[in-house]
Amino acid sequence: MIRRNKFSIIVALVILVLSLTSSQTFGNANFISIPYFDKLAHFGFYFLFMAVIIFEHRDTLTNTRLLLLTALIPFLFGTTIELLQSGIQIINRRGELLDLIANTSGIVVAIFLWIFIKPYYYPDSLK
Questions:
Q1: CA atoms within 13 A of residue 113's CA, in its CB half-sphere
Q2: In this model, does residue 120 exceed pLDDT 80?
Q3: pTM
Q4: Per the count of CB atoms within 10 A, which of 2, 5, 34, 47 is most buried?
Q5: How confident is the model at residue 53 (pLDDT cuts 50, 70, 90)?
Q6: DSSP characters over the chain
Q7: Using one digit for the tens of pLDDT, what is the confidence trace for 65-112?
Q8: How far is C-alpha 90 from the geometric centre of its chain's CA atoms?
Q9: Alpha-carbon distance 53 to 67, whole Å?
């Protein structure tokens, strides 16, 4: 099981470390002055997380129902991290509803992208 999911586990661990580490650890990134950049980062990380899960299980995700059930993994992971950030007093970190929305948006976009791309890679799935 771990071998099959090794990239998903690596992405999840990276997200966990970045989410629970104080933002002071990373220093100030003065060259990045994009409003709501952290929400874009949340979107990107969870898009990547879901895309890696889809890639690792592309042969077993035979229908949309299985795909949506699989999407619960990164959704619950992100929700748990946001709750941990709210419950544990981590310096400069707090759980936000907008972060959860950005996480969910990344997951949903990865799912839609797979639904639209899958027929080109697996033409038999159209039947």
A1: 13
A2: no
A3: 0.83
A4: 47
A5: very high
A6: -TTTTHHHHHHHHHHHHHHHS-GGGG---TT---TTHHHHHHHHHHHHHHHHHHHHTTTT--SHHHHHHHHHHHHHHHHHHHHHHHHS--TT----HHHHHHHHHHHHHHHHHHHHHHHHH-GGGG-
A7: 999 999 999 999 999 998 888 777 655 677 789 999 999 999 999 999
A8: 21
A9: 10
Residue 75: HSE in the Cβ half-sphere, 13 Å Cα cutoff: 14
Amino acid at 46: Y
Taking the C-alpha atoms of residue 101 and residue 79, their distance in angstroms, rounded to an integer, is: 10
Alpha-carbon distance of 125 to 127, in angstroms, equals 5
Rounded to 5 degrees, what angle do the CA atoms 51, 54, 56 make?
Answer: 110
